[in-house]
Amino acid sequence: MKKIITISREFGAGGAKIGKAVAERLGYYYMDKDMIIKSAMESSSITADEFSKWDEKVPHNFGFGQSLFDFYNKPLNEKLFEAQKEAIKKVAEKGNCVIVGRNANVVLKEFDAALHVFITSSTYWKLQNLKGLMPEVSEEKILNQMKSIDKARAKYCSYYTDTEFGKAEFYDLCLKSSDLGIEKCVDIICDIAK
Amino acid sequence: MKKIITISREFGAGGAKIGKAVAERLGYYYMDKDMIIKSAMESSSITADEFSKWDEKVPHNFGFGQSLFDFYNKPLNEKLFEAQKEAIKKVAEKGNCVIVGRNANVVLKEFDAALHVFITSSTYWKLQNLKGLMPEVSEEKILNQMKSIDKARAKYCSYYTDTEFGKAEFYDLCLKSSDLGIEKCVDIICDIAK
Asked: Phi and psi at residue A52, in whole multiples of 5°?
């Protein structure tokens, strides 16, 4: 029985939808990025402004010149990451939960009875999915957003953890929603969890 | 209904065992690396010696100095890769098959009704598994072999395809055999294939 399910996902691949459906079917508590941030803010001294400024970012020089590391901003970044980590752990300790985003698979890697899932999808499918969710935005803008959000997630992942975003070895299960369908993804996750 | 199942795998993760069990349960034809090579040799002028020399290798300078590319050996490498590609396609065209190894997921990416699977596993599990299969070999040697074979596979993959070994986006389904167990992996694949 898997008491904790974490879902990491590409932008637009349907990870949140799958996570919500899994939580509903199993009667589990659902926690997404916004709820993690809210909980982290409540238990720390970080302001909403600071959060929006640093959310899912890494110090400017990361990947270009570690020696030029932005020491001024580092403490706030770390504080932000730590606060989110604590928020995730607090929920995981109670069990029976689905947690979407924020490298919860790495934060909870020492927890037993956890199932770590990654949701990927073809670019075409993600584009259609996102067009349905934001019909007023142009295809070009959506494609750019897809690229930049996943790039930020990958950077955030490799900066704060010793893992790589979307690499199979760091998850128990990776599913391509565009090929399997949302419903089948939910079925597979629930079946393994039981 | 998935008529073609390809399985890519880390060394020692149980990919061949899973593939064989899936083929047996679904009544599919099973083709592994050795059978691909045999078929490729039969339909080409490549000798067994040439095969063993170049198998799962890339030209020496790959990744170090593309400009120093080993032109002399390139044709044989390409010929070897092409012959294996044709062998994989020949089997896939008949359908109802499980193909393990040799980047079959990329070779067959245009084929409909294909399910592309990657099998990963914890290092500890792979070591235990391989110790069972080759009890006379020391742990150290097995660990070195694991590292070098997967490194060669990753290099072979990125040299001959525009994909990355073990990255979720290039497969429909990635399973961690050490967490899910061989039997569950077989169940999930067969369930999706049906």
From this structure: -65, -30
Determine contact: A179 vs chain B, CB below 8 A. yes
Which residues, in sequence order, are bridge partners of residue B30?
B98
Q: Nearest 5°: CA angle at A107, between A102 and A109?
A: 130
ipTM for the complex? Answer: 0.87
- Retrieve residue A148's tokens: 């930049």
User: pLDDT tens-digit profile of B19-57?
Assistant: 999 999 999 999 998 899 888 888 877 777 777 776 666
At A48 the pLDDT is: 74
- Determine the distance in angstroms separating the CA of B88 from the nearest CA of chain A, rounded to an integer: 22
The burial of B98, by beta-carbon neighbours within 10 Å (0-12 exposed, 13-18 middle, 19 or more buried), is given as buried
Domains of chain B: 4-193 (3.40.50.300)
The contacts of residue A58 (CB under 8 Å, 6+ apart) are A77, A155, A156, A159, A160
Residue from B111, B162, B169, B183 to probe the interface with A (highest A Cβ count within 10 Å): B169
